[in-house]
Amino acid sequence: MTPRHWLGRPAFLALVIAIQVGIVVTHLAAAPRDRLVGRAVFEPDGYLYGDSAYYAAAADSLWRDRDLDLLNQNFPGRATIAEVLPELEGPLAGEFGLSADGRLTLKQSPVLPAAALPFYAVMGLPGLLVFNLVVMTLLLDGVAQLAGGTLLARLVVLVGFLTTPLHDFVFNFSPDLFLCALLIGSLVAARDRRPLLAGTLAGLAVSSKLYVAVLVLPVPVVVWGAAERARIAAMVRFAAGGLVGLVPGVLFNWWLFGAPWVTGYERQLFVVNGQVGLAGHASRFTEPPLQGLLNILFDPGVGLWPTAPLWFLWPVAAGVLLAPRVVPPGGRSWVVAACLVILLNLALFASYDGWYGGSPRGNRYVFPAVVAAVALIGAAVATGARAWCDGRARSPDSASRAG
């Protein structure tokens, strides 16, 4: 049994919530009403800046109109898309998708606004901020569990939270925190021998962002390693859960774009001289991979080195956890999977021309790599400390003092 310590799970959760509330209060202090429900929520330091505003519009459309036609949310008083074509000239059009029946809709997956809908229904726009706090709390709790749930693991998670751009996304409605919470939850469930839940969470993560299909590929490694016996049955349960988790994304695609395999990223709107066209995100993977990787790692504005230097310890942490005679908390399979998540995340976005994530707060596209690294570092610190304490207990000096 793990010994109790002052930073048990309830205390850890309370501390995480308190820190987040403090961050939110700091953001609201200058103009509470305007920053909570006024136009300031859509400004660069607001919680609905950028993509978050369109997710919020989708939540409003689902709640008020029972659809995902975002025309009235973004252009009140206009009856048809033809009326707003002049305003959609240029980059603004690219923020939307075009549905199969020609309506202005969300290019991203609607799974996030659908999940936050109860919060929006009760509290309006602030409900989306509260939902984000819940997601961040679940994410950090999941990372701490993956790292072993020890005192040192939780302390490292707190350090990782406060010294990386993660804390800058507390005051936000973030799809990236949402997918990370699902991904980490899937790894924890797989390690804890709950393959059906692991598959469901992995499927939901893919439903929330299609590219996560690449990042969940290592999860079966954990399912297989944790099962020990009846591995085929565990993999079948994982696959069944994955199919369940994919259902929301498939249904939304079918509803909006006419086919389960068509996403909004393949029907991104552009308008030139009043003419409507469609663009696909696949055409944007044009960055030279090596240059893109160097940008992700060392860009002076949003690179991992200036914004999350702790991240660079993950190879050392992985080496400690995979060393001979070392038994990581939860076994080795999750360590291998976490390393693969990091490498796949970097490889995926190194060739993307928007590798920087489009936010001055930090590169949200590499959050999966960040949280996986924090879990590895937390587990390694706890494992190393335990080995050091065990070594001291077995040392001749300790034995002579005990005698």
UniProtKB/TrEMBL annotation:
<feature type="transmembrane region" description="Helical">
    <location>
        <begin position="308"/>
        <end position="327"/>
    </location>
</feature>
<keyword id="KW-1133">Transmembrane helix</keyword>
<feature type="transmembrane region" description="Helical">
    <location>
        <begin position="169"/>
        <end position="190"/>
    </location>
</feature>
<protein>
    <recommendedName>
        <fullName>DUF2029 domain-containing protein</fullName>
    </recommendedName>
</protein>
<keyword id="KW-0812">Transmembrane</keyword>
<feature type="transmembrane region" description="Helical">
    <location>
        <begin position="12"/>
        <end position="30"/>
    </location>
</feature>
<feature type="transmembrane region" description="Helical">
    <location>
        <begin position="210"/>
        <end position="227"/>
    </location>
</feature>
<keyword id="KW-0472">Membrane</keyword>
<feature type="transmembrane region" description="Helical">
    <location>
        <begin position="234"/>
        <end position="257"/>
    </location>
</feature>
<feature type="transmembrane region" description="Helical">
    <location>
        <begin position="142"/>
        <end position="162"/>
    </location>
</feature>
<feature type="transmembrane region" description="Helical">
    <location>
        <begin position="364"/>
        <end position="385"/>
    </location>
</feature>
<feature type="transmembrane region" description="Helical">
    <location>
        <begin position="334"/>
        <end position="352"/>
    </location>
</feature>
<feature type="transmembrane region" description="Helical">
    <location>
        <begin position="111"/>
        <end position="136"/>
    </location>
</feature>
